[in-house]
Every structure is written in structure tokens, then in C-alpha cells.
Amino acid sequence: xxxxxxxxxxxxxxxxxxxxxxxxxxxxxxxxxxxxxxxxxxxxxxxxxxxxxxxxxxxxxxxxxxxxxxxxxxxxxxxxxxxxxxxxxxxxxxxxxxxxxxxxxxxxxxxxxxxxxxxxxxxxxxxxxxxxxxxxxxxxxxxxxxxxxxxxxxxxxxxxxxxxxxxxxxxxxxxxxxxxxxxxxxxxxxxxxxxxxxxxxxxxxxxxxxxxxxxxxxxxxx
Length: 222
Ligand SMILES: N[C@@H](CCC(=O)N[C@@H](CS)C(=O)NCC(=O)O)C(=O)O
Fold this sequence. Notes:
The chain is of the alpha+beta class and 222 residues long. The chain has eight helices and four strands, in the order E-H-E-E-E-H-H-H-H-H-H-H. A four-stranded mixed β-sheet has the order 2-1-3-4, covered by helices on one side.
């Protein structure tokens, strides 16, 4: 069924998260993509852990954010949502089939080859910093992340973006890199630091960040 071109897009976000997570909730990726192509959207704010609307799992089986709704379409998974938004505008996803495929490849690389490793570091540094198991595992995990980033840095070289031009693959990669709990691992590579900086100083990213932070309307601790 063709999509209604006038349907206003809705993005789900949390009205409260702990301070460390503010600015890093994954609806930011969706807001960023929409801001890049000047597509207006409205936000549906929902409660945090233990406080989801009762029927929310019909939209997002894992009870997470973001969800995008557009007319009859409901989508979850930030990667799928970015591809969907990218399809709307060549500035985010090239029309040439090979370039399009490679942009999607990088988006998946960020989700599948970077975030699973960096997520292990987050689990230690952010979620369980005093745990004995974390102290035993951390050096090995940091080494694995470091090796992966060195290879990414080699690939990027002196290019501004992973495929030479900005795509949804860069959006996902920049967001994955800026979320690494040990910033020194990125800072080791001047080109990766500059890449993250290039992404996060884009006006659209800044607008998305400001909007997410402004939407944490429930400021008391849960
Ligand atoms: N793979 C999902 C992950 C979504 C996700 O991890 N969302 C977090 C916020 S960044 C969340 O809703 N956490 C609350 C929970 O898992 O209950 C995506 O990329 O959309």
C-alpha cells in the first residue's frame, strides 16, 4: 500500500532516563535523520523502565525506544528506521544501487561489528563498574574494541565519511563511536576523533540532541 505523503511522522522517546543516558537514547538517531532532511515529526513520550503504556509491546516487542509511526506503518529498530528515512532522500541514502548497498552495509557494520564489542565495555564501565567479573574482563574487552577501532581508522584514512560522502551508514557509525564509554580508545585515532566531531557538529545532529534533552520532562529520579 503506498504511504500517505502527508502523514506526520511520530517518534517514541522516553520522558525520563538516568543522567548518564541523556543524549544517548536511540531515538536521537531517528531525530537526526529527520532533521537532516527537514522532515517534521512529533514525539510520543513514554515512561521509563516498568512504566510503559500497557499496549506498547504491540509496537515494539522488546518494549524499547525508538518506534517510528508514519500513517499505517509502525517500525522499530533504529537501523531499520534509518533505512526507511534514507529511502526518502538521496542526501541520506544514495540512489545508485551499489552506493546504496554500501551505505546500508556500513549502517549494519556499526550495529553488528562495532556496537556488540563496545556494548561489552559499556556493560562493565557504566552498568556494573564495581563488579569483580568486570575487573577481570575489562582489559581484554578494551583490547578487542581497540583492535576493531584501529581497523576502522585504517579504512577511513583521510576520507571525510566512510564512503567518501555522508550517508545513514555514517550516522550510525558516528553514533556508535560517540557512545563508547572509554573515549581514549577513539581519541587514539585522530581521524576517528575528527570523524565523530564532523558528525556531531552537523546542525541536524545538534538540533536532534537539543530536542531529545528538552523532552526529558520528567526530571525526578524513577
Ligand atoms: N536495537 C534497538 C535497541 C533499542 C534500545 O536499546 N533502546 C533503549 C534505549 S537506547 C531502551 O529502550 N532501553 C530500555 C529497555 O531496554 O527496556 C534499536 O536500535 O532500536
